Amino acid sequence: MQECTLLTRCSPTRFLRLCSNLDDGKQQAIHDMQFGGLLAITCKEVRHNLCLWIVQNFDVGSRKLQVSPVHQLEVTAEAVNDLFGLPMHGRILQVTSNPSEHPFGRLRDCEDRLNQLPVGEEFRRAFIWYACATILAPTSRVDGCRNLWHTLHGDEFRNDVNWAQFVVDELVSGIRHFQQSEKAWVLGSLVFLQLFYVIKVRIGSVSVPHTIPSIVAWTDDLIKTRLQAELRDYGSFGHGEVIEDVPNTPTDEEAENSDELWQQYEAAERTMKEQLTIMKRVMRQIHSRRRGGTHASTSNPNAFPSSPSFSPAADHGFQFAYHSTSPLQPRTSAHTPARQSSEDGPNVQGDDGSIADVMPLCAMFVPQTRRSGRTHRLRRAAPSLRSPFVPQPQTRQSALPMDLKDAVAVVFNPDLDPSEELVSMYDTHLTRGNLGCFQGSNWIGNEVMDAYCRFLQHEDCGATKLFLSPYLAEIVTQSQPRALHKETIVKQYERWWYDIDKPYDQVMEVFLPLLTKNHWTILVLDICNLRIQLLDPCGGRKKTHMTSAQQILAKVVLCLLAHKKGVSEYHFETFTFIMPDVPSQRNEHDCGVFVMKFMELWCSGGLSKSIDPAQMYA
Q: What pTM does this model have?
């Protein structure tokens, strides 16, 4: 495949060099025409690699840049006005081919005229044409657009043009011409296009100074640093944080409602922080007690051991429910003095004066008896993490049951050690840092996807499905095999298959998750029906052909499967390719979760159970 190139006449260096030689009076005239924002441009280079990616991912029909599967940026006259300050009100300029009495000259001749002409109508028209020829609407011609020159110097021309809309129209027309033809020239303002992208798509690792206007901060060095950071972190463009347009200023009523909502949010946030602090304190105390150990007293065989070191009453605001084996006590009213004895355990008094019964820690211990033998203590069972990767503890009763919220607090607690191993099963291990990909806007990593594939493989009772490691796709893609011989494939890639204790004769479906540019998809090879299905949770346009990388992966998998089954090789040409309709993700980072659900529920060309995206995001 021939590499696509891009050529342009957009030259901010030439434009800024001319403007720097103009005197103060002429620069003030430029500001009066509302073209002064162009003088604030500080970048002089056009990044061809970025502009080529933008042009290839630009939809000329909707005039939107497809940044990611779920994020689009619309190029509008308001965007041009925000960056360059050009007028966005007035008539639409109609470029005609009628010649004027002003002869058309070269671009260098126009530069000499601008330096020599006094401030006046002729200077203004010449400057507008020069700005369009260099940065606002350049063409493939060396000396700019001849028809635009005659239009601006016509007798009927009035400078009441919507120049921002003119820049957008010329840019979209140039991108359409580039996409539909085989020529490498891109017409239009590419300097606007690259500034629009770096401002709207933010990279967190790059610090951008706050300036007015915003284009002043974007020098060539800053743009270079920002693009290098994006390529280093993600491997390609289109993976930063998309900044949405700021909404209009709210009305007084909306502002008042927003203040009230903000106060409610802050109050809820404070409450959550207090509860989390209490939970952390209790967990630390339990942990320290389990490490230190407490022995029952032998002086009184019928007495419970006391525990002054752990008292929930010391934690003000402790509102968790406690279970006690003592009979239910009547509720004490606010006017009745609270009764407390050493047998009932400590009580917690709230801010309103109410008394809550709290189970003492000694109730968690089995009392000693007069029977001979060792004394035993009832220890708290391990918390039950509701995860398919963690074997659930088989206990009849848990002393301190932990629900899903508590499990999330343990797994995603930033104060705990990220290297602590939380999952160990099926020859794989996951740490707290690995499971952190389920939190926020993170992408599912290869480690988690590999562990889930192993889990599904061992839980497949029918032995008709074969789940492959995502590392297999990564290794094959990186190695780029040229000759797909059976001996070479078996030697290089067989070790990336899971060791299973089931025969391969009954395998009818093979699942291979693919991670391409931080987006998860899955190839399903239906051996029985001779078809290859691509499940893509981002939706969009259906593909009719596999990419070259996907074809190589499918051939490798078919070769290895035939080797494992001990049958003749499968011929890739006999398989048909389809993209079934599957539920779509609502953001750009949940593709991995959807792929995991597809692997779990996909069977014989469809989902065995329906997936409701609304419930997944609930």
A: 0.43
